[in-house]
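Sync notes, pocket subgroup
Present: LS, DG
LS reminded everyone that the earlier model was apo-only. Rerun requested with iron/sulfur cluster included. Inputs:
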Amino acid sequence: MDYDIKETMNDSDDLLFDAKINAPVGLGLISGGLDSLIACLVLKLQNIEVVGLNFKSPFCICDKAYKNAECGLNLFYDKLGIKTYFLQKEDDYLEVIKDPKYGYGKNLNPCIDCRIYILKKAKLFAKKINADFIFTGEVLDQRPKSQNLKALRIIEEESDLKKKLLRPLSALLLKPTILEENGIIDRTKLLGIKGRSRKKQLELARTHDLLNEYNACGGCLLTEREFANRMRDYLEYSKNPTMEGVKLLKYGRHFRFNGSKIIVGRNEVENNFLLHLKSPDEIVMEASNVKGPVTLIQGKIEEEVIRFAASLTLRYSDAIKSQGEVIYGREPTLLNEHLTVEKAIQEFLIPYLL
Ligand code: SF4
């Protein structure tokens, strides 16, 4: 279920953290991975009511884990009866990527600022659904930059959750939260896991019949070099970058030529996505009378750009001869312009490839 949290309540209301809560409800940030699953399990085992919150974005690669392992968001409901809500990271997230206060990880991933962003949103959402506290599946020192002791402290302070953010997997290695101090959560039933190994988590998953095998999926597309390059280019050239615009970065081969962007589909699925995501001012191009890619041209439509895009379109088509014709236009069903060009050669296109 998608919620609009813009129409949220008074931000000065705090989460309860009240010793008199009879049946506290914890809102867990869940990625669909093993750590958040076990964090939920640990709380369920002490009879805490748990609901999940999952953030979606075009950067998500969590479905990889789902394909390769028995893990995924369905397990939270199927095995633990946990209802999950979904929120989108919105366009304001792009500001986080552009200028993260706490810097980047190995590529364009602003992990510390990203955690702060989602916790701030989660805090508003918790109030909306009357959850009493927030917890995460973070594990101390699992990621060197964003999950060390200092980073965990920064994250809870900057999201205004100092001593209020429960991390059930590493709680015994961290200072007690107010929830533990007030006896709402039994600290003795929390864990003291540290580091990258998921041995303990998997052991618990097996013991409680949640899953048998697990392949960690590691982050989001912003951690990947090729995608990060495309993203940097997108932020540099777009006047009004949007999360919708980011979706196009996931499909096709991308080239920047004379300030314009050319995207060439790699297969039929990508061709269909490009046509689906195309905006009205973009040009569509195809090879004439032969199977080949859908090419999109964004930005200034100059003759040189058209010629370059045409030579790429022909290169990645099934055309046998070195010279051939392409057709193009703004309306995919009416490509009534045409041009004859030579196929691009590898050395020529490499400098423009993103
Ligand atoms: S890997 Fe991506 S989604 Fe995960 S914390 Fe870092 S920036 Fe956010």
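DG: The pocket of iron/sulfur cluster is lined by residues 109-111, 114-115, 219-220, 222-223 (CB under 6 Å).
LS: The radius of gyration is 24 Å.
Action: DG to write up.
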